[in-house]
Amino acid sequence: MDEAGVRRVLDIALRFGQLLLGSQAGTADVTSTIVAVATAYGLPQTQVDITANSITVSVPRGVPGAPVSAMYLVQSRSLDYTRLQLTTDLAQHVVDTTPEPEWVQRQLDTLAEAAHPYPRWVATVGWAVMAGGFSVLIGAGPLVAVISALTTALIDRVGRILNRRHLPLLFQQVVAAAVATGVAIGLHAAGWLPDNTPMSPVVAANIVVLLSGLATVGSVQDAITGYQLTAVSRMMDILLSSAGILVGVSIAVRIGRAAGVDVQVIPDMPVVAALSVPVYMVAGAIGAAAAAIAGYASIRAAVAAGIAGATATLLFFGLQLIEINTIASSFVAAAATGLVGTLLAPRLRATPLVIIMAGIVPLVPGLTLYRGFVQLVNGQPTAGGTLGMAAGLALALGAGAVLGPLLAPSVQRELARYRHRVRSGSRRQALTRYRMPQLAGIRYIGRRSASRA
């Protein structure tokens, strides 16, 4: 292959990596896709280097001279699970069939310029339903769940306006957290709610929404698979967003105090005994499916995310009932979510990352994080321990979500062996059922002939 052909192949491989990295795919997945595409076109020794927002590929020439290298920058990262799925499908098609490079370039142009599959208001409704479902999981009643949903819809609309003005994400998080906390304080101060109505779920649910779009799973996956540079970069985004939420909560609380509004946003949530585990499962399924729709996933992927969310919720609360540690419960539930998502993905033609990311949303420690923020604002010495607990829960979720897909091949092999044994057993029973009379007759005839002789 001449140099022009090599550069064309590298351009195609880089554009695949650009779309996947912009969709918050793990660095290991992006690297393997780039190498697979390049290998399909005859470049098996392609070297890939990925940093925070750039991808560099290089191909040794095998002759005297410098290798052929190319680099792409990932300008923006817009959450679109449908684009991620279509990009993954196209990459698999390229690896399987090796079509003409010109055709692949046209398909990549179409993917890069394609609009979201749903109108933006559908995503807003998805975020709102997700917040309402999560508030139910942390003890909210119907009224507070509706307020959480409406507050999230307002924050999403405000965030889109700020995003169009190119305001950095840190300040968008500050504004969003201030709006969420301000709504809770304002409703309490105005007396528009019944007495003893907890409003902490409003803020906690919105914290989950603000953190759910970040690559928490991707950062832990990068750290585990050896891509420490991108792991640190993604973790820094999460830390900055969390700091923005802390600042927003602090501003709203202090403004309320300065205005003479003596309202304490209580960090401790009462346990609603009337809610049973099936109700939690339904809330978790609805929240996970809504999170997938908010990320512009397909209906099939949203259904799979709902199943994964219900599984995660059932395991988490089931382990809590038998007094298992919260971090251990989160880890086991996230691992089960990753396993279920990986097993369901091929059947529903969905990317496992979509199911996993949306499926663990009900487990995001929004309440613990909010509790730590309030304790920090109030100067309580327990704030450090609470925030450390939130960090531990987040790491447990990320590690479990990475472990689940790693267990999937072994589970699939065992399931295949079990099905093979079942089919073999059925065949033996069928052969015994239909051939045993014949064998018995042959033996009987042989014995009778021997007796005559």
Concise synopsis of the structure shown:
This protein is mostly helical.
Summarize the helices and strands and which ones pair or pack.
Blueprint: H1 3-22, H2 27-40, E1 47-50, E2 54-59, E3 68-73, H3 81-97, H4 101-113, H5 120-137, H6 142-164, H7 169-190, H8 200-212, H9 216-224, H10 228-258, H11 277-294, H12 299-321, H13 326-348, H14 352-359, H15 366-377, H16 383-452
Antiparallel strand pairs: 1-2, 2-3
Beta percentage is: under 5%
Strand order of the largest sheet: 1-2-3
- Assign an overall shape: globular
Number of helices: 16
Question: What's the number of domains?
Answer: 2
Mean pLDDT: 81
What percent of the residues sit in helical stretches (DSSP H or I)? over 70%
Low-confidence stretches: 269-274, 433-453
Helix-strand makeup class: mainly alpha
Number of strands: 3
Rg over C-alpha atoms, rounded to the nearest angstrom:
27 Å
The major pleated sheet works out as: 3 strands, antiparallel
Termini distance? 82 Å
Run of helices and strands: HHEEEHHHHHHHHHHHHHH
Protein name: Transmembrane protein
Family: Belongs to the ThrE exporter (TC 2.A.79) family.
Pfam family, one: ThrE_2
InterPro entries: ThrE-like_N, ThrE_2, ThrE_Dicarb/AminoAcid_Exp
